Amino acid sequence: MTRRKSLPVWEESERDIDWIRSKIIKLGGPGSGHHGHSGRPGKRGGSAPSSRVYTAAEFGKMYDDFIFSMKNVEGDTWLELTNTDRGIIKDTIVSAIVDDTGVSYGDVNDVLRTWSHTANDHDLQALSMQEAISEEFGVPMSDWQKQRLADLRTINEAYEYRRRIAYEEEIIRTDLILSDQEKIEMIADYKKDFYEKYPNIENITAPKELIRFNYQSESTWRYDLDRSGISREQERAVVRSMYNQTQKFLGDAGVKPTDQVTLYRGFVTEQKVALGYLPTVQNAASSWSFDLEVAGEFSERFNSDGMGYVLSSKVPASSILSTALTGFGCSVEAEVTVLSNESPSEVVDSHALSELTVLGGPGSGHHGHKGLSEVTVKEFL
Fold first, then answer.
1. Which of 168, 180, 231, 323 maximizes the CB count within 10 A of its CB?
2. Structural contact between residues 322 and 241, judged by C-beta atoms closer than 8 angstroms
3. Are residues 290 and 195 in the same domain?
4. Considering the domain boundaries, does residue 105 fall inside one?
5. Any bridge partners for residue 277, and if so which?
6. How far from each other are the two terminal CA atoms of the chain, in whole angstroms?
């Protein structure tokens, strides 16, 4: 898909959303509103607005104003940034975090580089950062994140243990005193002990190569998982630093912590998803975009069966962890990293609009239909 190269991308994005919404008949109807009360901050339900809601276009303007103010950066907007510009911005981010936390430049740079490749998947360092974010900000990890992290740690431990066994087995094999039968029995005991300690290891798929553990394969004895080179305390300090810098960026632009920002996220799922509000399970931190077209590209990028969709959510400013100008994030994707929060998400675009049933908003009841089950967060991109 060819990227647009001019600022009207935001205006077009907003018009696209307005057009889509104009074709949707929402279920619910009169009487389901806030009824004169302001509601509970951060909670779902029919509450009167108590803060300003910034459109994606307005957020993008703040973003570009910040870029325009940066020294030595040639591009005036996020669409015009050169590779050199992006390098300068990342160096500024890393240096600021280093000054704030005392973590080395190389370690901070490595954390940001890993996140730019993946925020989850089968990467132990990325998932460790998700866990650090969960601990630092008191937000939950999704169940699948917890399970995947546990699996990776089990694999890591089992492979280390198998390496030690392989070394001891080699000593036994080359022993000049033990009989062949004694060697066989001792090696068999090692294997028995291993599987008593890790009975389900062969049912866990290893990362990256997606190989399964093979006790006899020497390649698995030498398998190394990516691990963070910094401590949990340092991980927490790094994400806290980027959060503080992000909140300063928002505050300097006039955005209050109680304000909301409209963001988009592309996702794929095996379920048939309807336009309207969708129950979702969120990661401790997840990637969104202030550009509708970017989100649309992600809804198609890894999808072969046509079930790609775009979510829109009014995210509390206090839940924004970082942007590509302040921490985690890819500038060419207008990426914004968001902490897990209770803001409702709305499906506003899909590859098959005419085939989908329309759902009502939060608090509007089932109105004779069961609605959608939660979409699993692991299926989000």
1. 323
2. no
3. no
4. yes
5. 346
6. 17
- For residue 22, the Cα-to-chain-centroid distance in whole angstroms is 30
Q: Is residue 179 part of a domain?
A: yes
Q: Are residues 199 and 274 in the same domain?
A: no
Helix, strand, coil share (%) of the chain residues, nearest 5: 45, 15, 40
Q: Which domain holds residue 355?
A: 9-118+232-379
| Helix (H) / strand (E) containing 260 | strand 260-268
Q: How far apart are CA 108 and CA 218, in angstroms?
A: 34
Strand ranges, E, within 171-259:
none
Residue at 138 is within a domain? no
Choose from 42-46, 125-129, 249-253, 359-363 the range with maximum mean pLDDT: 249-253
Q: Which amino acid is at 331?
A: S
Same structural domain, 102 and 151: no
> How does pLDDT run across 17-30, given as a tens digit for each residue?
443 344 333 333 33
**Where on the phi/psi map is residue 368: left (φ > 0), alpha (ψ -120 to 50), or beta?**
left
* Cβ-based burial of 47 (10 A; exposed 0-12, middle 13-18, buried ≥19): middle
Q: 200 and 263 share a domain?
A: no
Rg (CA), the chain: 25
Q: Tell me the pLDDT band of 220, cut-offs 50, 70 and 90.
A: low
In whole angstroms, give the CA distance from residue 39 to residue 269. 32
Total-model pTM = 0.73
Structure tokens belonging to residue 73: 């950066």
- Position 4 in a domain: no
Into how many domains does the chain fold? 2
For the stretch 105-147, pLDDT in tens is 999 999 998 888 777 666 778 888 999 999 999 999 988 888 8
User: Does one domain contain both 195 and 271?
Assistant: no
Residues 107 and 170 in one domain: no
Do 203 and 240 have their domain in common?
no
Among 161, 248, 237, residue whose Cα is nearest residue 197: 161
- What φ, ψ does residue 91 adopt, rounded to 5°? -65, -40
Asked whether residue 209 carries a pLDDT value surpassing 90, the answer given is no
